[in-house]
Amino acid sequence: MMRALCTLLLFLLPTLVLAHAGSQGLILLLPTEIYITAGAIAVVVTILLAAGLNHGQLTRLFTPLTFGRAPAPFTVLPSLVSSMIFACLIWIGLFGPSDPLANLMSLTTWTLFWILFVIFCGKFGQLWDWVNPWAGLYSVLMGDGDPPAKLPTSLGYWPAIWLLFAFNAFGISNPAATDPIQLAILGSLYWIFTFLMMVIFGRDWLKRGEFITVFLALLAQISAFGRDERFHFGFPGWRIVAAKTPPITLALFSLTLLGTGTFDGFNETFFWLAQLGLNPLEFPGRSAIIGETIAGLLAANLLLIALFYGLIYLTTPASHRSEMFCRQALTILPIAFVYHFAHFLPSLLVDIQYTVKALSDPWQTGADFLGLGQFYVTTGFFNTLATQRVIFLTQAGAIVIGHIIAILLSHRVAADYFSTRRGVLISQIPLSVFMIGYTVLGLWLLATPKGA
Fold this sequence. Notes:
Layout: H1 2-12, H2 32-51, H3 55-61, E1 65-69, H4 76-95, H5 104-124, H6 128-131, H7 135-142, H8 158-173, H9 180-201, H10 204-208, H11 211-220, E2 225-227, E3 230-233, H12 238-242, H13 248-266, H14 270-275, H15 290-315, H16 318-330, H17 333-360, H18 385-414, H19 421-447
Antiparallel strand pairs: 1-3, 2-3
Helix pairs in contact: 2-18, 2-19, 4-5, 4-7, 4-9, 5-9, 5-11, 5-17, 8-13, 8-15, 13-15, 13-16, 13-17, 15-16, 15-19, 17-18, 18-19
């Protein structure tokens, strides 16, 4: 009962949200060192608590409750509807309003999908299986027969990794990433490319090559909810513990999510701009530093992967090193998830208002389908200390909670490879230092002034 109650409380606490967040309307003139110190202390206390738990206690913590029989999912119709909605968005992107804040192609891509839908997948599990815009049409046209070719096993998840990197490089470095025409063209090309790959390689392309599917499937493992033949509910991340050892390329994909999210916040800071020799108060625009941004994004991911492997290498016997690296890489998913939320919360608060307005009048003809009347988008909550404090504390709280879940997951995974509590504790010292440092970095990124 206590485990279920703790799980429910964590589920209800604020958590998550790659477009670009709205600029900080107010530099945080708060005693941020207090919040950063408090966050770090909370993580340290969690590490000490986890160190005091034995294997049986950790196992019980991540053992889900099972109940009911789950009916077989019916996904063809929702997927076909999703395909039709996507086609409508492409049309609106090409021929609708040119303003990204009034065009549903831009707002749906970055706000409804890349922020809200990602939140829902992290909270409620694998929703993408129901609404991805390829699977339904593939089932209707191709059936369940074998595809003409088999996706080589040796490729692993490399196609998804490179597509994820390309997408993030586009979103972070491109000054016109929200342009509706550009999004409509690229979205159409990507839909066609993915469907052709499915025709050639079958559904395996979705599982290992299509980066959105891989991304959302990983995030779904954080959710407290799960289903197979039955419904399950447990402590967030229980599916990561229950899963088999993932391929190394899936581990690299997971680390890339964290590295990209971190750099997305870091590359807006005064510190980063100073390293590029730029005055943040006279920022020349994203188009002037595209090359530097992409290089920084690549370097950030390579550095994180190398650092994470080094930490595993320090304390894990050679016989388990590769397996430990792959499993521990998935334990950082809660951190990537909450960084996504914390970074994009300001953007969500503003852009969701523009999205509602655009839904009511998608062609800017004066229509009012939702009956909003005179509707004005407000950003006033960025301009007062009280509301800015609430926003910051929500972001900071999410980051601390994400690290706490990741620490507990990491200790539970380590317990499978070390027979004594002392062995688990020693193996976790480098990763614990890493978690504390990343907590401080994340909270600093929230509070530091932005110049880009």
